């Protein structure tokens, strides 16, 4: 199996984990967890678990800390906006808004980093956006405070996806080490946020959701994402990760948070079509066609 296909499968796993995280975070919120204490545990607990696997590695690398802190800052603000937004909105709605990073990733690459993005990936991004839209089509989305938070979340995650690819291409950091710095950055910023917002309440209620968010969604998924993005473009990664909106909706239906509708089925098919589109090598197909002729 090629590295590209392995990375695609890896990011699909990330999308599944992040899709399930909406339920985990939701259970924590319902149990009384506030945003910054929740993010603090996600950052420090997740980072500490990954740190155990890196103790014998070389940490004398300034670029590693620089890239980890920048990526971690985007990560922190992305999850902060998302968690605040989830308190005010349905799972499918905040998941849809988060998945707008599908559109923001190629825009950031083209405008800010002056990178060329293949037309195939731009079309796939727009197709995935249409699919995500179907997932929440029956809910009228007006520009409420929760929606603004969701859009800001999507922008932050889009920058994180692009920056992870940039650092992976330039420095080839160890995914475990970069994850540690990224998560510890989120933890320290959450600690600061706790005192600024006066959010200091901790509870063992809903701890299963907190552990899922810290160990699977933050630690494991981050390592997988950073490793996978070494081998594929940011735009393609954004399309695949955007499937978290589909999985979040599926899980919400499975656990009776929401009901299954035709739009969910149609949206899922469209999003899977976008993933298939990113995997088609049109140049290779043309070469095969010419050879047959």
Could you walk me through the main structural features you see in this protein, from its secondary elements to its overall organization?
There is one protein chain. With 293 residues, the chain is an all-alpha fold. It has one domain (3-292). It has 13 helices and no strands. The chain has helices spanning 3-30, 35-51, 62-87, 91-98, 101-111, 119-135, 145-171, 175-197, 207-228, 234-241, 244-254, 262-279, 282-292. Helix 1 (3-30) packs across helix 11 (244-254). The longest helix is centred in the first third of the chain and has 28 residues, at 3-30. The protein is globular and about 45 Å long. The two termini are 29 Å apart.
Our estimate of the beta-strand percent is under 5%
Low-confidence stretches: 285-293
Query: How many domains would you count in the coordinates?
Result: 1
Beginning-to-end CA distance, first to last residue: 29 Å
Give the overall form: globular
Q: How would a textbook summarize the main sheet?
A: none
Order of helices and strands: HHHHHHHHHHHHH
**Strand-pairing-aware structural class:** mainly alpha
> What's the helix count?
13
Task: Calculate Rg over CA atoms.
Answer: 19 Å
Instruction: Quote the average pLDDT.
Output: 85
Helix content percent band: over 70%
Count of distinct strands: 0
């Amino acid at each position: 199996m090629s590295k590209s296909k392995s990375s695609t499968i890896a990011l699909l796993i990330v999308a599944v984990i992040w899709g399930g995280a909406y339920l985990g975070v939701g259970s924590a919120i319902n149990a009384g967890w506030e945003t910054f204490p929740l993010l603090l545990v996600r950052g420090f607990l997740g980072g500490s678990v990954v740190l155990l696997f890196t103790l014998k590695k070389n940490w004398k690398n300034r670029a590693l800390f620089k890239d980890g802190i920048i990526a971690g800052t985007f990560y922190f603000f992305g999850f902060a906006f998302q968690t605040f937004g989830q308190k005010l909105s349905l799972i499918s709605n905040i998941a849809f808004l988060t998945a707008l990073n599908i559109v923001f990733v190629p825009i950031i690459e083209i405008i800010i980093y002056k990178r060329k993005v293949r037309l195939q990936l731009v079309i796939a991004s727009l197709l995935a956006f249409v699919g995500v839209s179907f997932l929440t089509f029956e809910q009228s989305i007006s520009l409420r405070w929760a929606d603004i938070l969701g859009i800001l979340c999507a922008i932050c995650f889009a920058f994180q996806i692009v920056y992870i690819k940039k650092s992976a291409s330039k420095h080839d950091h160890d995914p475990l080490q970069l994850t540690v710095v990224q998560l510890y950055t989120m933890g320290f910023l959450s600690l600061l946020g706790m005192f600024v917002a006066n959010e200091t309440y901790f509870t063992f209620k809903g701890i299963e959701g907190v552990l899922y968010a810290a160990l699977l969604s933050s630690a494991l998924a981050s390592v997988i994402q950073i490793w996978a993005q070494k081998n594929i473009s940011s735009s393609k990664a954004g399309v695949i990760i955007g499937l978290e909106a589909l999985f979040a909706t599926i899980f919400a239906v499975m656990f009776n948070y929401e009901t299954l509708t035709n739009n969910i089925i149609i949206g899922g098919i469209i999003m899977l079509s976008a993933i298939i589109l990113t995997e088609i090598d049109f140049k290779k197909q043309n070469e095969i066609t010419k050879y047959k002729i």
